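Homework help board

Subject: predicted structure for assignment chain

Our instructor gave us this sequence and asked us to write out the predicted structure in token form, then describe one feature. I got the tokens but I'm not sure how to describe them. Can anyone check?
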Amino acid sequence: MTDEACIHVSRDDGICTITFDRVAKKNALNMAMYAELNTALDEAVSDDKVRVILVRGAGGDFTSGNDLEDFARFDPAGTEESVVRFLYRLADLNKPLVAAVEGVAVGIGTTLLLHCDLVYAADNAMFQLPFVKLGLCPEAASSLLLPLLAGYQRAAELLLLGEPFSAQKAREIGLVNGVFAAGDVFNEAFGQARKLTALSPAAISASKGLLQRSRRSLVTETITAELAVFRQRLASPETSAALSDFFQRTLKKKQG
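My token output:
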């Protein structure tokens, strides 16, 4: 595995654990990592021994979102195939998806949680949906799923203002199932995943399908609609200026 594709996969007791491991970048996702994620999900779905998929981040953070330097090289015509495939893959998983979240969970680090069946967060977790701040728009069907989960006004606050919010607030709006100490959250999530492995996989799959039946087609339609607007926004002067400002501020921080 190259340094650019920092996804680690392990299997234990019917649980496939997928770890974002790019600690120096707070596990920011680049194109190579999306390709690895797609492979990991495909293999987990096709492996009958895998009953549950568990996602986590290494080094005390979940993920700081998309690597914006990598992101800035996107072709608005749609060459970001791995990213697009990952979004649709999240929407059609037929096995339980569990997340253990520590530290930062920015952008896709928050929106992918909307596709999880169970989410457990550390008390130091900090979530953010900064799309509008970057001149962009919501992705991963978050413009549909977050209002369904939290109500329109709270979803609008989080998506339009794009301000960070705590694990406690995430629990209040229903985004996470439980909040634990940072050192305990993975074990708690793994324990819940293990409970799922003891149940009938056919019954779990059927029940998940029924839970998502009323929204499944809407989710894929929303992902498609968001992607169309996202590509337009990515080519806009506002986004170009916002990304330039972000890179300048990042450079100043590195320089001390």
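Reply (TA_rk): Your tokens look well-formed. For the description, you could write something like this. The CA atoms of residues 7 and 36 lie 6 Å apart. That's the kind of observation they're looking for.
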